[in-house]
Amino acid sequence: MESLYGSSTSLPSRRYQSDERIESQKSQQNEEENFYAACRAAYLTVFKTSLENIKDKEQLRLGEKMSPEEVNAVLRLADVNSSGKLDYNKFCSVFYNTCDQCVKMADEKMNANSRAKRQQFGSQIETSPERSPSPRTPRDGNTTPRKVETKSPRPSSARNYKATMCTVINMGPISARNSKLVEPNNLQEWQSSQLKGCFFLEDTSIISHHYKLQLPLKTTVYLTIKPLNLSKVEGKSSPWMSMDTALYILKENDGKGDPQLISFTEVRNKEAFVWKGDLGVGSYTLIPFTTGCRLTKKKKQNLKEAQLVYRNDREDLVLTPEFRSALSDMFDIIDLDGNGSLSLEEYNFFEMRTSGEKCDDDAWEVCKETFETKKNELTRKGFLDLNLMEANDREGDPSDLWVTLQSMGYNKALELTEACPFIIDVYAEKCKPRLSAVSLPSSTRQLQKVLCKSAILKGEAKPMEGYESVVIYTYKNDSRITSVIENKSDKKIMMQVNNDQSKNCVSSRGLSLFAVEVPAKSSTVSQHVMAVSERQEWFYNCIQSVLS
C-alpha cells in the first residue's frame, strides 16, 4: 500500500488524522463564531458583560496583567531560605493553596446563585434539561395548537430591560394528531428517487449532507424525510427513530445570488415529515434539518471502552463481533444510494467526515485492487477488511479506529449517540426526479439564513412595544416552535430569553435562560422548542427582553 498516495502512507492510515488537524481545516471565522456563541450567555449572566472588549481568546484564558508592585507583594508572602533567596518550594505551596481557595470561593458563589449555576457557562448544546411533563390533560379532545398569545409581563419584571415581550402558546398532544397531508392514492405509480444521509453533532452545531434535485418537467412532487432504522431485530426500532427532521427546498438561480426558498416539510406522518406541491423545470437544493432538541451532547459517562480487535489462536488480528456490527451499520449509513456498495463519491463523504481529506482516483484504483469490490465499488466485506488492515498497520492499537468511530457519532460503548441517519424519498408524477448528494458542509450559515427566512415568511410577527426596531417572529407547526429575532437597528442588541414558565418543553439551546446577540440589520434564530413528552400537552411561555 505504499504507493497509494505516492508515499509510504497507506489508505486507512492517511484517513485517520488527529482532531487538531481536522479542526485546522475549518475556517477561522467559523471557529471564532462558534467559540463566542458558546461563551456569550454565561459571561452576560455571570459577569454582566457581553464580551464587548474581548478581542481574542487569550483575554478569556488569562487574567489581568499584574503590576510590579503586585508581583513583589506576592513574592514577599514566601520566606527566603538560608542563602537569602526565594524559598521556591514554599512559594509554590502558597501559590497552589491560593488557587484552591479561589476555586472554593468561586464554587460557593456559584452555588449561592442557582440561576447562574444553571447557565453551564453558555454552552448551547449541553444535554437538554428535560422539564417535568405538565399534568394537565386535553380538554374535550381538542388537540390543535392554540392561538399565539403575546402580552407584556408585569413592569417589575422588566426593570433592567429596554423592552420585554412574552409569547404564550398552548399545544395539544402530538401523538393524538392526524396528518393533514394525504398521500396521493397512485403514489406507487409515480417515479421516485431515494437517498440516505446523516446528521452529525458538532461542538456548537449540527451538520448534514446537502442534495441537488433536478426535474426535467414541471410536475407535482411528494417529498418525505425520516430517520433511518438500522435495527436488524424484527419489531425493534433504532433509538433515534423519534428524532425530528425537516427538509427545506430551495430553487437555484444559476449562480446569481442566494437560492430562493420555495417551501419545506411541515406535516408529520408517523416518523416522516412530508411536503407536496408543484415544482417547475430546473435544479433545486434540498437541505435537511433537525432542531437539536433531541440530538444533543450527552453527559459524560464512565462507559467501559468496547474491545475492537483481538488476536486469535494463530495470533492474527480479528475484528470483534461488536465492532463488526458497528462497522456494518456505518457502512449502511455511508452507502447513500443503498445499493450495497460504496462508490468513490460515497466513500469520499466518509473520508471528509473522518479525516478531512479526499481519496483521489489513483488511490481509489489501488483500493479496488486490494479490497473486494463489485462493479468498481467497495463492498461491505471490503470496507470491513480495510478497517482490519488499519488495525494491523497499528499492530492492534485501536486509537485511529476510535477517531473514525467518534467522528461518525459513536461513543465508547459503540452506541450511535451523536449522529442520526435519515432517508429522503422524492416522488414525481410526470417525470423521473434525479437526486444526488452534493456536499457535507462544515458550516450551517446557509441553513441558518433559510431558517430565519422561513420563520419570517410563515411565522407571526410581533414588534416589541417601545422598541419597534426589534421584531419577534414565532413559527409553529404540529411538532415544533421556532423563534427568530430581527434587529432592524444600526446597532447590535443583546436579548435575554427566559423559558422558565414553559411546561413539558425542551429548547434547542439546552437552557431555560440564555442570551442571544443579534447583529445590526440582521436576523438570528433564538431557539427551537419541542415537547418532552409527545403524549401530553406542552405549554410554551417565553419572555424575551432587550437588555439595557
Concise summary:
The chain has 548 residues and is of the alpha+beta class.
What does this structure look like?
The chain is of the alpha+beta class and 548 residues long. It has four domains: 30-118, no CATH class; 124-177 and 448-547, no CATH class; 187-292 and 419-441, Sandwich (Jelly Rolls), CATH 2.60.120.380; 306-407, Orthogonal Bundle (Recoverin, domain 1), CATH 1.10.238.10. It is built from 13 helices and 26 strands. The strands form six sheets. Strands 4-3-17-6-10-9 form a six-stranded antiparallel β-sheet, with no helix packed on it. Strands 1-2-26-22-24 form a five-stranded antiparallel β-sheet. A five-stranded antiparallel β-sheet has the order 8-7-11-5-18, covered by helices on one side. Strand 12 and strand 13 (317-319) form a beta hairpin. The longest helix is centred in the N-terminal third of the chain and has 25 residues, at 88-112. The protein is globular. It starts with 10 loop residues before the first helix and ends with a strand. Residues 66-101 form the EF-hand domain. Pfam families: EF-hand_5 (PF13202), EF-hand_8 (PF13833). It comes from Pyxicephalus adspersus. Residues 1-12 have a biased composition (Polar residues). Residues 1-29, 113-159 are annotated as: Disordered.
